[in-house]
Amino acid sequence: MIKFFLMVNKQGQTRLSKYYEHVDINKRTILETEVIKSCLSRSSEQCSFVEYKDFKLIYRQYAALFIVVGVNDTENEMAIYEFIHNFVEVLDEYFSRVSELDVSFFNAVSQAFHSIWQNTG
Amino acid sequence: MVMSSLKLQDLIEEIRGAKTQAQEREVIQKECAHIRASFRDGDPLHRHRQLAKLLYVHMLGYPAHFGQMECLKLIASPRFIDKRVGYLGAMLLLDERQDAHLLITNSIKNDLNQGIQAVQGLALCTLSTMGSAEMCRDLATEVEKLLLERSPYVRKKAVLTAVHMIRKVPELSDTFLPVCAKLLHERHHGVLLGTITLITELCERSPAALKHFRKVVPQLVQILRTLVTTGFSTEHSISGVSDPFLQVQILRLLRILGRNHEESSESMNDLLAQVLAVNILGRFLLNSDKNIRYVALTSLLRLVQSDHSAVQRHRPTVVECLREPDASLSRRALELSLALVNSSNVRAMTQELQGFLESCPLDLRADCASGILLAAERFAPTKRWHIDTILRVLTMAGSHVRDDAVANLTQLIGGAQELHAYSVRRLYSALAQDISQQPLVQVAAWCIGEYGDLLLEGSCEETEPLQVEEEEVLALLERVLQSHMSLPATRGYALTALMKLSTRLRGDNNRIRQVVSIYGSCLDVELQQRAVEYNTLFRKYDHMRAAILEKMPLVDRGGPQADEEVKESKEATHLLEPAPVPTEPQASKLLDLLDLLDGPSEDSQQPPPVDPSPEGTLIHLLDLPCAPLAPAPIPNLKVFEREGLQLNLSFVRPPGTPTLLLITATATNASEGDVTHFICQAAVPKSFQLQLQAPSGDTVPAQGGLPVTQVLRILNPNKAPLRLKLRLTYNHYGRSVQEIFEVNNLPVEAWQ
């Protein structure tokens, strides 16, 4: 089950965040910084699945933007990995060569994500 | 133009040369007229050429029905060149709807019996393409004979023809059934492929065939396995996969055979899963993409629980992955390696794991250390190796091991009589080098205290001779005591060790007495108490000192408990013993019943080891009657009846304890035959606690003999609705019976 979905840039600013489990507002920032720290510290050689506390993080880097999905044990890591990529391709089509700016300024992104997410379950 | 002997090629050229549709039609019409004329004239030499041209024209879409009779004539001709074109024409021009097709049956029959491969091949081909039902029936026996021909070429074609025949005339399956099993032994992939297809067709059409072929499932799996596991075979492999077509066909057949049939599915499953899945996973491990490796490791981990041996094959690769710089991968590899350790590879694996321990990141160290220790415990080949391993782990990662590692090691050493000298020496040298690793220091201190005399003896064949002076030993222990790195617990160990040495060492004890008296004023209360007690031992009870400080007997496994506690719990468990002990083996069998009810809670099945109020429990047990009370306010319930054997439940709610319910299950036998080996097991949802007491017996004699009673104690702290599932196993009239059922209409007063 997906716990959260984040799009964070390299400086640690969150461009999009969706939580599917209740997390307090102040805890969210801490969570996001920790998550981005663990993703940043990894080189490109290492695999995209990180174990963090009691769940797993699956992340992909696109230029300066990290997309991180936190899942619990029941989820298939490769499936989520490809799902992230699928989502990015959708955005790419929609915005024709999407950039970080688009993501931060358009509500459409979160809506697009939500509809994809619901369809894939 | 004289076109009567126009070769096919020339015709094609001409047709291609035509610039427009009309032109082409013209050419063709002219040619067709010539062909018709030639057919009428009956020129045998060039007939084949004419027919070839006609066929080409037919391919282009023009009517060619007048060539049908010519086909027949060509087929009948003895020349191969005629037959070839004739059969080709038959396949293209003749089909079921034409009346002429039956006429070739005879020719085909003759050709099939001829014995020339090529001709037989042609005939079979034609038959399989356009054979109608009547033709198939007529020629079935011939084809069947050919299935056993020597030449694989003919056999392959024969099998394909058989497939066609089955499709056309399902009744013929009887003819082909017996041959199939023999054909499965084929080496030739073509024939094998055909056979599999034939069997598939047979199974699809007739359930009798299905049953018959279920027997060959192991054979199929064997074939599949050889295909998958044998290496590269240039003849049949396609991008590294050997004969995927055959594999797919076999899989399809297995799917059909396994449908709705437990036994064959099972035999398929374990072989298939093993062979296919594990190999693929192993290949993933070698992939360079890290993500794929991660997934492979995760899946293998899940697999190793169900099928250990298959994963063993990939052990070297997994061990490689341990060395990955990537943290998640190495963690997974560590888990998998630990799971793969077994008695045969334990030495090699622990070596690898110890190497890993040295270099691994800190968060994995604890897991690695405890994993190694656990593996060593389960599979240690010799005690000495075990001690060595634990020692090494303690030296390397001492601060990260679990707390009971110390206790385990001391117990282990204590138990290994022959190794006392060896271990104490090793520990002494380790301690002399480094007193910072607390678990190590604790164990070493204990050992030196216990076996100090062996240390000083000087000779031990297993390690290099180590000359140790008494003074050195004392100095070391003092250092441990004084070091700021030592925990209070460690200091306690060291102090006690010093005391023990006072009896073991031959010199005088002044130094020891000095140290002990210093610590009499230590700030740490624990140490102070010990020091004061030891001091008193020196002064007032010197005569008892030797007796008190002699070598410890082996501590019981299960923790360092004070003696009184152990005695108390023994008493408490003694009374509970008879009831839970028979339920222990039952509990494990019950666990598979319990998908409906979420299983009895584990703790109710095991006697509590250290009962907090042992006396309370004793009273409890003594209070409760073990026989059913006579006036039961809750109505009895008859829950089971079969062939004279009846099971009744009676309920009692003792007034003192509102959450307790006692059910007495009574089994009576009104039939003519005895009921023997009667066992009744029960299951309740998780929130309840169930205790089955021992039944009064396991035989219910016939015709109203003495019934078997059994008391069930159910604790219901949450006052939740009671659900009860019962499992009865017994022998009656020579048969063994097993019944599982849920008791549905439990009276409400039972749980409210």
How would you explain this protein's 3D organization?
The complex is a heterodimer of chains A (121) and B (752). Chain A has one domain (2-119): Beta-Lactamase (2-Layer Sandwich). Chain A is 45% helix and 27% strand. Chain A is built from four helices and five strands, in the order E-E-H-E-E-E-H-H-H. Chain A has helices at residues 25-40, 77-95, 100-105, 107-120; strands spanning 2-9, 14-19, 49-52, 55-62, 65-71. A five-stranded antiparallel beta sheet of chain A has the order 2-1-5-4-3, with helices on both faces. In chain A, a hairpin with a 2-residue loop joins strand 4 and strand 5. Chain A is globular and about 35 Å long. The model of chain A has no long low-confidence stretch (mean pLDDT 80). Chain B has a five-stranded antiparallel beta sheet with strand order 3-4-5-8-7. In chain B, a hairpin with a 7-residue loop joins strand 4 and strand 5. In chain B, helix 4 (68-76) runs antiparallel to helix 5, helix 23 packs parallel to helix 25 (438-457) and helix 27 (488-504) packs parallel to helix 29 (525-539). Chain B is elongated. Residues 558-632 of chain B have low confidence and may be disordered. Classes of the chains: A alpha+beta (121), B alpha+beta (752). The A-B interface holds A 42, 45-51, 77-78, 81 and B 290-295, 298, 325-329, 331.
Largest interface: A-B, 11 and 13 residues
CATH architecture of chain A: 2-Layer Sandwich
Task: Look up the CATH topology of chain A.
Answer: Beta-Lactamase
Strand content of chain A: 25-35%
What about the largest sheet of chain A? 5 strands, antiparallel
Spatially, the strands of the biggest sheet of chain A line up as: 2-1-5-4-3
- The general outline of chain B is elongated
β content of chain B, as a range?
5-15%
Query: Order of helices and strands of chain A, N to C?
Result: EEHEEEHHH
Q: Count the strands of chain B?
A: 10
Number of domains of chain A: 1
Supply the helix-strand structural class of chain A: alpha+beta
**Order of strands side by side in the largest beta sheet of chain B?**
3-4-5-8-7
**Relative helix content of chain B:** 55-70%
**Radius of gyration of chain A, taken over Cα atoms and rounded to an integer in Å:** 13 Å
N-C termini distance of chain A: 9 Å
Average pLDDT reading of chain B: 75
Shape call of chain A: globular
CATH class of chain A: Alpha Beta
Number of strands of chain A: 5
Domain AP complex mu/sigma subunit (chain A): 1-105
Organism (chain A): Myotis brandtii
Subcellular location (chain A): Endomembrane system
Subunit structure (chain A): Adaptor protein complex 4 (AP-4) is a heterotetramer composed of two large adaptins (epsilon-type subunit AP4E1 and beta-type subunit AP4B1), a medium adaptin (mu-type subunit AP4M1) and a small adaptin (sigma-type AP4S1).
